[in-house]
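Consortium newsletter contribution from the modelling node. Members have asked for a concrete example of what our holo predictions look like. Here is one, prepared for the zinc ion complex that several groups have been discussing at recent meetings.
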Amino acid sequence: MTRLLFWIALVILVVAAIRSKLRAALARAQGPSAGPAPASSGGNANAKAWSRVEDQSETMLCCAHCGVYFPASEAVRADGRDYCGTAHAREAHQQAR
Ligand SMILES: [Zn+2]
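And here is the predicted structure:
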């Protein structure tokens, strides 16, 4: 009998954990304005999470040769212009001559 109660308690705990995770994921997907913000501490945590997301986002640059957008950290600078790779920087340089 105690075994059955143990398994029931385990299932309830697992379901509760999954539901709380799903709710957190939904709140994140909906954004800080759409999601429920009951407590000030919870809203603060949400804002912190969003500022972290903004920190991770990177500036996108347009390749001066092919026009493709790419992260600024991968940019190859040549002749004062940004390129998506060394190949396009070289090609643009050769065409300019
Ligand atoms: Zn390019």
